[in-house]
Amino acid sequence: MTQASAPPLLALRGVHKSFGAVHALTDVELEIRSGEVVAVMGDSGAGKSTLVKVIAGVEPADAGAFRWKGRPVDLARPHHTRDLGIAAVYQDSALCHNLDVVGNLFLGSEIRRLGVLDEGTMGRRTRSLLDSLPVQIPDVRAPVASLSSDQLQIVSVARALLGEPELLLLDEPTQALDTRQVSNLLDLVERLRDDGLGVLLISHTMGDIKAVADRVAVLRLGRNNGVFDVNTTPHEQIISAITGATDHAVSQRTANREEYGP
Protein backbone atom coordinates (compact mmCIF):
# COMPACT_ATOMS: atom_id res chain seq x y z
CA MET A 1 0.00 0.00 0.00
CA THR A 2 1.45 3.38 -0.99
CA GLN A 3 1.37 6.37 1.35
CA ALA A 4 -1.19 8.07 -0.90
CA SER A 5 -3.55 5.07 -0.77
CA ALA A 6 -3.03 4.35 2.94
CA PRO A 7 -5.63 5.69 5.38
CA PRO A 8 -4.75 9.00 7.05
CA LEU A 9 -2.54 8.87 10.09
CA LEU A 10 -5.31 10.71 11.97
CA ALA A 11 -8.83 11.51 10.78
CA LEU A 12 -11.36 13.61 12.71
CA ARG A 13 -15.07 13.62 11.90
CA GLY A 14 -17.85 15.70 13.42
CA VAL A 15 -15.81 17.01 16.35
CA HIS A 16 -17.69 19.25 18.79
CA LYS A 17 -16.33 20.99 21.88
CA SER A 18 -18.13 23.55 24.04
CA PHE A 19 -17.21 25.45 27.17
CA GLY A 20 -20.55 26.25 28.72
CA ALA A 21 -22.51 28.30 26.17
CA VAL A 22 -19.42 28.89 24.01
CA HIS A 23 -19.12 26.53 21.04
CA ALA A 24 -15.36 26.32 20.48
CA LEU A 25 -15.53 23.59 17.80
CA THR A 26 -18.57 22.62 15.74
CA ASP A 27 -18.61 19.64 13.36
CA VAL A 28 -14.88 19.93 12.62
CA GLU A 29 -13.23 17.52 10.19
CA LEU A 30 -9.51 17.13 9.55
CA GLU A 31 -7.08 14.60 8.10
CA ILE A 32 -3.31 14.36 8.59
CA ARG A 33 -1.10 11.87 6.76
CA SER A 34 2.37 10.58 7.47
CA GLY A 35 5.07 12.73 5.88
CA GLU A 36 2.73 15.73 5.63
CA VAL A 37 2.57 19.14 7.30
CA VAL A 38 -1.01 20.34 7.75
CA ALA A 39 -1.33 23.92 8.95
CA VAL A 40 -4.37 25.28 10.76
CA MET A 41 -5.11 29.00 10.51
CA GLY A 42 -7.87 31.25 11.78
CA ASP A 43 -8.51 34.43 13.71
CA SER A 44 -8.13 34.53 17.48
CA GLY A 45 -10.95 32.50 18.98
CA ALA A 46 -11.40 30.37 15.86
CA GLY A 47 -10.74 27.18 17.85
CA LYS A 48 -7.17 26.38 16.80
CA SER A 49 -5.66 25.77 20.23
CA THR A 50 -8.79 23.95 21.35
CA LEU A 51 -8.40 21.61 18.38
CA VAL A 52 -4.81 20.81 19.42
CA LYS A 53 -5.92 20.12 22.99
CA VAL A 54 -8.74 17.86 21.79
CA ILE A 55 -6.35 15.81 19.64
CA ALA A 56 -3.88 15.65 22.54
CA GLY A 57 -6.58 14.47 24.95
CA VAL A 58 -6.19 17.50 27.20
CA GLU A 59 -9.73 18.70 26.44
CA PRO A 60 -11.93 15.69 25.59
CA ALA A 61 -14.34 16.33 22.73
CA ASP A 62 -18.05 16.46 23.51
CA ALA A 63 -18.77 14.50 20.33
CA GLY A 64 -16.97 13.24 17.26
CA ALA A 65 -15.15 10.28 15.78
CA PHE A 66 -11.40 9.75 15.62
CA ARG A 67 -9.53 7.24 13.49
CA TRP A 68 -5.84 6.39 13.77
CA LYS A 69 -4.50 4.67 10.66
CA GLY A 70 -8.05 3.74 9.74
CA ARG A 71 -9.23 2.29 13.04
CA PRO A 72 -11.47 3.98 15.63
CA VAL A 73 -9.61 5.28 18.67
CA ASP A 74 -10.33 7.09 21.92
CA LEU A 75 -8.52 10.41 22.41
CA ALA A 76 -10.18 11.17 25.73
CA ARG A 77 -6.98 11.35 27.80
CA PRO A 78 -3.36 12.37 27.19
CA HIS A 79 -2.02 8.88 27.84
CA HIS A 80 -4.29 7.52 25.10
CA THR A 81 -2.71 9.85 22.57
CA ARG A 82 0.82 9.17 23.79
CA ASP A 83 0.24 5.44 23.46
CA LEU A 84 -0.85 5.94 19.85
CA GLY A 85 2.18 8.09 19.01
CA ILE A 86 0.87 11.66 19.28
CA ALA A 87 2.89 14.39 21.00
CA ALA A 88 2.18 18.09 21.43
CA VAL A 89 4.14 21.29 21.97
CA TYR A 90 1.94 24.09 23.29
CA GLN A 91 2.26 27.89 23.22
CA ASP A 92 3.14 27.75 26.90
CA SER A 93 6.10 25.39 26.94
CA ALA A 94 5.19 24.28 30.49
CA LEU A 95 8.85 23.63 31.24
CA CYS A 96 10.00 23.46 34.86
CA HIS A 97 12.48 26.31 35.05
CA ASN A 98 14.06 25.06 38.27
CA LEU A 99 15.09 21.80 36.57
CA ASP A 100 17.92 21.27 34.11
CA VAL A 101 17.42 20.25 30.48
CA VAL A 102 17.70 16.51 31.24
CA GLY A 103 15.21 16.79 34.08
CA ASN A 104 12.68 18.50 31.83
CA LEU A 105 13.00 15.98 29.01
CA PHE A 106 12.50 13.01 31.31
CA LEU A 107 10.03 14.56 33.75
CA GLY A 108 7.43 11.87 34.41
CA SER A 109 9.33 9.24 32.41
CA GLU A 110 12.57 8.99 34.36
CA ILE A 111 14.89 6.05 33.73
CA ARG A 112 15.80 4.10 36.85
CA ARG A 113 18.29 1.35 37.47
CA LEU A 114 17.80 -0.72 40.62
CA GLY A 115 15.44 1.96 41.90
CA VAL A 116 17.95 4.79 41.42
CA LEU A 117 17.72 7.50 38.76
CA ASP A 118 20.02 6.59 35.88
CA GLU A 119 21.40 10.07 35.31
CA GLY A 120 24.08 8.85 32.91
CA THR A 121 21.68 7.18 30.48
CA MET A 122 19.24 10.11 30.58
CA GLY A 123 22.07 12.58 30.02
CA ARG A 124 23.42 10.65 27.02
CA ARG A 125 19.97 10.29 25.44
CA THR A 126 19.33 14.01 25.94
CA ARG A 127 22.68 14.94 24.38
CA SER A 128 22.10 12.63 21.42
CA LEU A 129 18.60 13.99 20.74
CA LEU A 130 19.60 17.64 21.07
CA ASP A 131 22.61 17.16 18.80
CA SER A 132 20.18 16.12 16.03
CA LEU A 133 18.21 19.38 16.33
CA PRO A 134 19.08 22.74 14.74
CA VAL A 135 19.61 24.82 17.91
CA GLN A 136 22.67 24.09 20.04
CA ILE A 137 22.41 23.70 23.81
CA PRO A 138 25.98 23.23 25.05
CA ASP A 139 25.16 22.17 28.61
CA VAL A 140 22.31 19.68 29.15
CA ARG A 141 22.71 20.20 32.90
CA ALA A 142 21.97 23.93 32.63
CA PRO A 143 18.70 25.03 34.28
CA VAL A 144 16.18 25.88 31.58
CA ALA A 145 15.70 29.30 33.21
CA SER A 146 19.10 30.24 31.76
CA LEU A 147 18.19 29.36 28.14
CA SER A 148 17.23 31.67 25.27
CA SER A 149 13.76 31.61 23.71
CA ASP A 150 14.77 29.38 20.80
CA GLN A 151 16.63 27.01 23.13
CA LEU A 152 13.50 26.76 25.30
CA GLN A 153 11.43 25.93 22.23
CA ILE A 154 13.90 23.26 21.17
CA VAL A 155 13.79 21.69 24.66
CA SER A 156 9.98 21.56 24.36
CA VAL A 157 10.22 19.94 20.93
CA ALA A 158 12.90 17.51 22.13
CA ARG A 159 10.70 16.47 25.03
CA ALA A 160 7.87 15.75 22.58
CA LEU A 161 10.19 13.80 20.27
CA LEU A 162 11.67 11.71 23.08
CA GLY A 163 8.86 9.16 22.77
CA GLU A 164 9.39 8.88 18.98
CA PRO A 165 5.88 10.04 18.00
CA GLU A 166 4.34 9.60 14.56
CA LEU A 167 2.30 12.80 14.80
CA LEU A 168 3.61 16.07 16.26
CA LEU A 169 1.26 18.92 17.17
CA LEU A 170 2.87 22.38 17.22
CA ASP A 171 0.77 25.25 18.61
CA GLU A 172 2.25 28.61 17.50
CA PRO A 173 5.86 27.34 17.79
CA THR A 174 7.45 30.46 16.22
CA GLN A 175 5.52 33.08 18.18
CA ALA A 176 8.35 34.20 20.49
CA LEU A 177 11.22 33.71 18.03
CA ASP A 178 13.20 36.14 15.89
CA THR A 179 13.73 35.69 12.14
CA ARG A 180 16.83 33.48 12.41
CA GLN A 181 15.26 31.35 15.13
CA VAL A 182 12.07 30.93 13.08
CA SER A 183 14.15 29.73 10.12
CA ASN A 184 15.84 27.11 12.29
CA LEU A 185 12.53 25.83 13.61
CA LEU A 186 10.95 25.65 10.16
CA ASP A 187 13.99 23.70 8.94
CA LEU A 188 13.29 21.21 11.73
CA VAL A 189 9.62 20.92 10.72
CA GLU A 190 10.65 20.15 7.15
CA ARG A 191 13.12 17.53 8.34
CA LEU A 192 10.52 15.84 10.53
CA ARG A 193 8.15 15.68 7.56
CA ASP A 194 10.92 14.23 5.38
CA ASP A 195 11.51 11.61 8.09
CA GLY A 196 7.88 10.52 7.70
CA LEU A 197 6.21 12.25 10.65
CA GLY A 198 2.84 13.89 10.37
CA VAL A 199 2.92 17.47 11.64
CA LEU A 200 -0.02 19.68 12.61
CA LEU A 201 1.17 23.29 12.68
CA ILE A 202 -0.87 26.10 14.19
CA SER A 203 0.29 29.52 13.00
CA HIS A 204 -0.89 33.07 12.37
CA THR A 205 1.99 33.69 9.96
CA MET A 206 1.34 33.04 6.28
CA GLY A 207 5.06 33.08 5.53
CA ASP A 208 5.65 30.15 7.89
CA ILE A 209 2.72 28.25 6.35
CA LYS A 210 3.91 28.83 2.80
CA ALA A 211 7.43 27.75 3.74
CA VAL A 212 6.66 24.29 5.16
CA ALA A 213 2.99 23.27 4.94
CA ASP A 214 1.46 21.02 2.30
CA ARG A 215 -2.14 21.93 3.10
CA VAL A 216 -3.79 24.57 5.26
CA ALA A 217 -7.14 24.08 6.99
CA VAL A 218 -8.95 27.27 7.97
CA LEU A 219 -11.15 27.45 11.05
CA ARG A 220 -13.68 30.25 11.38
CA LEU A 221 -15.96 30.55 14.41
CA GLY A 222 -15.05 26.99 15.36
CA ARG A 223 -16.01 25.48 12.00
CA ASN A 224 -14.14 24.29 8.92
CA ASN A 225 -13.97 27.10 6.38
CA GLY A 226 -11.90 25.48 3.66
CA VAL A 227 -8.88 23.22 3.16
CA PHE A 228 -6.36 24.51 0.63
CA ASP A 229 -3.29 23.23 -1.18
CA VAL A 230 -0.57 25.64 -0.09
CA ASN A 231 1.36 25.34 -3.36
CA THR A 232 -1.55 26.10 -5.69
CA THR A 233 -3.93 28.33 -3.73
CA PRO A 234 -3.51 32.11 -3.98
CA HIS A 235 -2.58 33.85 -0.76
CA GLU A 236 -5.65 36.07 -1.04
CA GLN A 237 -8.02 33.11 -1.14
CA ILE A 238 -6.72 31.74 2.14
CA ILE A 239 -6.90 35.17 3.78
CA SER A 240 -10.49 35.55 2.57
CA ALA A 241 -11.41 32.26 4.23
CA ILE A 242 -9.78 33.39 7.49
CA THR A 243 -11.52 36.78 7.57
CA GLY A 244 -14.88 35.48 6.39
CA ALA A 245 -14.91 37.28 3.05
CA THR A 246 -15.63 33.82 1.64
CA ASP A 247 -17.36 31.60 4.19
CA HIS A 248 -16.95 28.22 2.47
CA ALA A 249 -18.22 25.49 4.76
CA VAL A 250 -19.85 27.86 7.24
CA SER A 251 -22.02 29.64 4.69
CA GLN A 252 -22.79 26.42 2.85
CA ARG A 253 -24.11 24.75 6.00
CA THR A 254 -26.26 27.79 6.74
CA ALA A 255 -27.64 27.81 3.19
CA ASN A 256 -28.43 24.08 3.33
CA ARG A 257 -30.31 24.46 6.59
CA GLU A 258 -32.34 27.36 5.21
CA GLU A 259 -33.27 25.34 2.11
CA TYR A 260 -33.88 21.92 3.64
CA GLY A 261 -34.57 22.71 7.27
CA PRO A 262 -32.59 21.59 10.34
Automatic annotation (TrEMBL):
GO MF terms held by the record: ATP binding
Keyword hit for Nucleotide-binding: yes
Keyword terms, alphabetized: ATP-binding, Nucleotide-binding
UniProt key word Nucleotide-binding: yes
Membrane-traversing stretches: none
Signal peptide region: none
Top-level taxon: Bacteria
InterPro entries: AAA+_ATPase, ABC_carbohydrate_import_ATPase, ABC_transporter-like_ATP-bd, P-loop_NTPase
Residue intervals of the ABC transporter domain: 10-246
Protein name: Sugar ABC transporter ATP-binding protein
Protein species of origin: Streptomyces durbertensis
